[in-house]
Design goal:
Thrombin, subunit H, globular, Chitinase A, domain 3, 9 strands, binds zinc ion, single chain
Length: 161
């Protein structure tokens, strides 16, 4: 079975930036699962996965446009603190997941005020050219429920509580 639309693909990865620094790795934890063709992962990585089989190991370098986008300077937004209730104590430098009408957006806190928080809406990896070392460990058919929801259920995927 090959990575293709409506398949659940599970893989290990190591992510490095253009300087060769390791940013993230799944080596010491469970591999990651995603639903192919559902925009669950960055487009450059999904394209590279297409047509690969279980056991395949490969490396792909993804430009910002197909990763987390270019950095937009001055992309600072002011968010009322009351919108961040339930996120606990917030401090400068912290990365938050904000719920917006376009879905969850990752932002970095740059300034704390009494009633507002200024956040940098650039994704922390915006502007970075990223290299993924990938090893595909499993590919299976997605269930109708998974294709309906647009994400993977069970281990490595979305947990509905
Ligand atoms: Zn679901």
């Amino acid at each position: 079975m090959l990575a293709d639309k409506d398949k659940v693909v599970t893989f290990h990865y190591t992510l490095t930036n253009a300087d060769g620094e390791e940013l993230e790795s799944s080596k010491d934890r469970d591999p990651m699962s995603y639903l192919h063709g559902a925009n669950n992962i960055i487009s450059g990585l999904e394209k590279a996965m297409q047509g690969h089989a279980i056991g395949d190991e490969f490396s792909v370098t993804v430009e910002p446009a197909e990763a987390y986008g270019e950095r937009v300077e001055d992309n600072i937004q002011r968010v009322p603190l009351k919108r961040l209730k339930g996120l606990g104590k917030i401090k400068v430098g912290q990365v938050l997941n904000l719920q917006t009408n376009k879905g969850p957006v990752q932002v970095t806190v740059v300034k704390m005020g009494r009633f507002n928080v200024d956040v940098d809406a650039n994704h922390p990896l915006a502007g970075e050219t990223l290299t993924f070392e990938v090893e595909i460990t499993e590919i299976r058919e997605a269930s109708t429920e998974e294709t309906g929801h647009g994400h993977v259920h069970g281990p490595g995927g979305h947990q509905h509580n």
